[in-house]
Structures are given as structure tokens and as C-alpha cells.
Amino acid sequence: MTHHRTVIVGTGFSGIGMAVRLLEDGERDFVLLERADELGGTWRDNTYPGCRCDVPSHLYSFSFAPNPNWSSTFSPQPEILEYLRGVARRFGVLDHVRFGCELELADWDEQRSRWRLETSQGGITADVLVCGQGPLSEPKLPEIGGLDSFEGTLFHSAAWNHEHDLRGERVAVIGTGASAIQFVPRIQPEAGRLYVYQRTPPWVMPHPNRPMKPFERRLYGRLPLAQLAMRAAIYWARESFVLQFRHRRMRRLATRMALRQLEQQVPDRELRERLTPRYEMGCKRILPTDEWYPALMQPNVELVTGGIREIRGRSVVSADGSEREVDTIILATGFHVTDLPIASAIRGREGRTLADVWDGSPRAYKGASVAGFPNFFFLVGPNTGLGHNSIVFMIESQINYVADALATMRRRGLETVEVREGAQAAYNQELEELTRGTVWVTGGCASYYIDRNGRNSSLWPYFTWPFRKRTRQFDEEAYALGPSAPEPAPAG
Ligand SMILES: Cc1cc2nc3c(=O)[nH]c(=O)nc-3n(C[C@H](O)[C@H](O)[C@H](O)COP(=O)(O)OP(=O)(O)OC[C@H]3O[C@@H](n4cnc5c(N)ncnc54)[C@H](O)[C@@H]3O)c2cc1C
Questions:
Q1: What are the pLDDT digits (tens) for 234-280?
Q2: Can you point out the beta strands (E) in 379-427?
Q3: SS3 at position 131
């Protein structure tokens, strides 16, 4: 069994960013476990047509690795994947990655104060386990009777079947969230017939995306400070968006803009009616696109509302009994967010898993540490997701916190650090107060931000700069610090 000081799970923004930081801090004894054969996380898996980020690229990238060459202000998936590959190569991360290696079980060994890991490539032990497994990395399948025995082609948007030709086919898309609104306009011209099954209409805003001008690229290439200034401007502009989620009157203008776009793009009153959200804007993720409504109005597209009863043979049967025969079903049904499968695979003290302890409501301290789980850290853990700004900002904040925890352990010769129950409870109490009254819990929708107990366990509900401030330093006083490691016994 090999042993490492630190094991990191995942090679998305989180895992790569953490590895770069460890290397900068002079740490060499670490490994990244990646179940796939390639790095990139979200941006490796989501290859559907039209996939791109919905936070501007200048901000949706590492602060320590600006890229002057983005082709557009909101870059497409292949560019983001290439960017991540480039960062990993440039900073020497690849030497530390074990590809095709899935973490299957992690057990805290109380006797030896270390993690025992079972992976698809055998056992590993680690002093510290850092999980960057991804907030949206486990595709969710809808519970629709007969889906398993559908006789045509079926795939999820996060595992796009590029071998399959949609030209001339009858295609059903189930779901109208962030992925569907990006790929439906791309596949609409190809499909013979396209049925879009909508449960709840999304709030849609005009998309500010535009190609990056050659002079901008030259400027950012020659003058990195200019790009830094642009990044800061975008950050502060987006930061102000949080007010819309917290105060109803602050979202009036955005709501009017969205409704105006709907009215301008969808003249058909009946269709418009079905596309008008009946919950408040911001309750679910707001989706930027200029192409969604025009695609839905094409003659080969039908918007089907009212729910799905079952899949029968090659047909999708609606709740009203109407039946539509299709060749392909594309599931755009999102991800497991508050019910992460990895929570059942991590066992802390007394053999309790994260899933046992959480009981449907993920909780952590600063989105990173969980009481009962020593020497364990999350990146993008509970309550670090965002509705208004770049998650990379949160990831970098957490990386700094974890790196400082590791440095503290080393400096003080500590064997274990474990967040105190009281500190975690107080932190979560504060989160609950910050969430109260926000649109996420009062907006009248069901969203993936809210767990099965009705609690916001995924979003950081406030400005992000206070989070950065709070993660600047590892706060020892919130932790039970294990004894110093014993001196090694003299040889012989
Ligand atoms: C289509 C799409 C678009 C998005 N757009 C934006 C956006 O514009 N702005 C924004 O802020 N956020 C966006 N997000 C959210 C996005 O997930 C995060 O921004 C970010 O990419 C998360 O990075 P990560 O490294 O934490 O997780 P991921 O990128 O998901 O990486 C996690 C990695 O861990 C690996 N892994 C998981 N479990 C195991 C295991 N048990 N063993 C070994 N390896 C494992 C996975 O294979 C994966 O490579 C988007 C998400 C999706 C799906």
C-alpha cells in the first residue's frame, strides 16, 4: 500500500488549482486521483454542442494563470478544457495524477491517524484527504417509468454520444435547464422533429457574449495588468448581482428585461404563456441566451409541458396520455448536487459516513471541514456554490485555506486537525440567517440548491469577498488539534 502526505480527489479546477498551490508551497508528496482517463472535470465531460461557461472567461479562470487568448467573452467548452490542460502542463501537475483511479471508499484509521483509501487501482493511505470531486459531476437520471427499456438511443447531456447522428431524427429533450438551453438551438437545425419536454420554464436573460477583438487579445497579451483590471471590474460588477437574490426590488429591472426578451422573441401568446416562469427570478439559476426562444419557435420543434407519465417502447407518453414516438432521448436533467454519491464512501470517526452524518443536509465549516472527519477537506463543499459569480473565486479561497491548514500542521508538527462541532454549528447558523428571506428559499420554486429537507446546503448566500476574507488563514481555534507526531524511534 502506498502512502502519501496528501491525496486529492479530482482534476477539475479544484484539483488542479490545489496541486499547483501545493507545488508552489514546496510539497511534493501528494497524488491526484482521477477516475477518468483525462483531466478537466466538468469541461472534459460536458462536450454537448454549444457548451460554454456563463460567467465571463476573464473571471472564470485562475487568477494566477490569466489567458489573453480567449476567443469570446464567454468561452466555449473546448477552450476551457484546453486552458485547464495548459495550466496542468505548465505547473507540472500531470506527474502527480493517477488516471483511471476512482476513490471507492475512504476510512479514517483512528489508531494510525490517517486515511485508508480503497481505489479502483488498489489501496492508498494518506495523512490528509482533499476532495475536489465536483459539485456537478454526477449526472442525474429522471425517475420515469420505462426509461430503462427505451428502445431507441438514450444519453445524458453530460455524456454526449458523438457517434450518434441526430440528422433527420425524432428527438426528445427532457429538461430545460442550463445545458438544454445551450444545446437545443444547436441540434434544432439537424433534427427532423424535436420535442422539448419542459417541467418548469427557466428565467432567460439576453446573453452578453461577443467575440474577443484582436486588439483586446494583443492588449492583454502585452499588458497583463489590463486583463487583471478587466477581471476585477467583472468581479465587482457580478458581486453586485447578489443583491438581486437578497432583495425583491433589486430584481425588478432584471425581471423586466427577461420578460421583454420573451415578449419580443415569442409573439405567439399561447407559447409565451407556457414559457413564462411562475416563480421569482433567481430562485433557480438564471440562464443567459438569445437563442433559446427562437429555436423553440422553429416549425420542427414542439414544446411539451404538463409532465411525462412514462416511456413506452419508442414513445414518450405525456401525463395527458398523448404519445410521441422518438428515435433518441437526450436527458438534460442535471446532476446530483445535495445528494452526492461520494458522501456514502467517506467514513470518519466511529465508521459513520458523511451521508449518515448529514442525513440529507450537507453541512461543513467554511465549505471545507466536517466535524467527525479529521484531516479531511472539501473544495467546493457544502454552501460554496454561487448563483451570481465565478466558482473559481470560491475554489481559490478554499485552496488557500487548505494550504494554510497543511502548512500549520507541518509547522506545529500536528498529526490531526478536526473542526469542532460548536464552530461548525455556529457557522451553519450564520448561513441559515444569511439565507433567510433570499429568493432561493422564498421564490416559490424547487431547485437543486435546496436539499431534501428544504435547506439551502449548496449556495453561499452572500457577497463572496467576506468568504475570501474568512478563508485567508487557517483558524486553529475552530479546530481540535491532534497531538504532535511522535519523534521517530532511534534506529536499531
Ligand atoms: C455544463 C456546465 C457548465 C458550467 N458553467 C459554469 C460557469 O459558467 N460558471 C461557474 O461558476 N460554474 C459553472 N459550472 C459549475 C462547474 O462544475 C464548476 O465551475 C467547476 O468546473 C467545478 O470544478 P471542480 O474541480 O470542483 O469539479 P469538476 O470539474 O466536476 O471535477 C471533479 C473531478 O473529480 C473526478 N471525480 C469525482 N469523483 C471521483 C472519485 N470518486 N474518484 C476519482 N475521481 C473522481 C471527476 O471525474 C472530475 O474530473 C458549470 C457546470 C456544468 C456542468
A1: 999 999 999 999 999 999 999 999 999 999 999 999 999 999 999 99
A2: 417-419
A3: strand
Distance of CA 14 from the midpoint of ligand 1 (Å): 8
Q: Is the pLDDT of residue 486 over 90?
A: no
Amino acid, single-letter form, for residue 282: G
In the predicted structure, residue 492 carries a pLDDT above the cut 50? no
**Per-residue pLDDT tens for 454-479?**
999 999 999 999 999 999 999 999 99
3-state secondary structure of 222: helix
b/e per residue 147-185 (b: at least 16 CB within 10 A): beebebbbbbbbebeeeeebeebbbbbbbbbbbbbbbbb
**What is the grid cell recorded at 297?**
419557435
Which 3 state secondary structure label does DSSP give 201? Answer: coil
Measure the CA–CA gap between 373 and 351, rounded to whole angstroms. 10
The set of protein residues with a Cβ atom below 6 angstroms from ligand 1 is 9-15, 33-36, 41-42, 46, 51, 53-55, 60, 102-103, 132-137, 179, 342, 379-380, 390-391
Strands lying side by side in the sheet with 153-156: 153-156, 328-331, 170-174, 193-198, 301-305
Calculate how far, in angstroms, residue 98's C-alpha sits from the geometric centre of ligand 1: 18
DSSP annotation of 94: G
User: CA-based angle 76:78:83, to the nearest 5?
Assistant: 100
Instruction: Write down the H helix ranges in 327-390.
Output: 354-358
Distance CA 392, CA 62 (A): 7
Angle between helices 391-412 and 13-24 (to 10 degrees): 40
- Tell me which H or E stretch contains 329: strand 328-331
Mean pLDDT of the chain: 96
Distance 265 CA to ligand 1 centre (A): 33
Q: Please give the model's pTM, rounded to 2 decimal places.
A: 0.96
Q: Is 132 helix (H, G, I), strand (E, B) or coil?
A: coil
Q: Which of 336, 357, 423 is nearest to 143 (CA)?
A: 336
**49 burial class (0-12, 13-18, 19+ CB within 10 angstroms)?**
middle
Q: Is the pLDDT of residue 198 over 50?
A: yes
pLDDT surpassing 50 at residue 179: yes
From the CA atom positions of the chain, what is the Rg in Å? 24
Q: Within 10 Å of residue 329's Cβ, how many Cβ atoms?
A: 22
Tell me the C-alpha distance between 60 and 78, whole Å.
14
Residue 431 above 50 pLDDT? yes
**Using 50, 70 and 90 to split pLDDT, how confident is the model at 483?**
confident
Is the per-residue pLDDT at 489 higher than 60? Answer: no
Judging by DSSP bridges, how do beta strands 193-198 and 122-131 pair with one another? Answer: unpaired
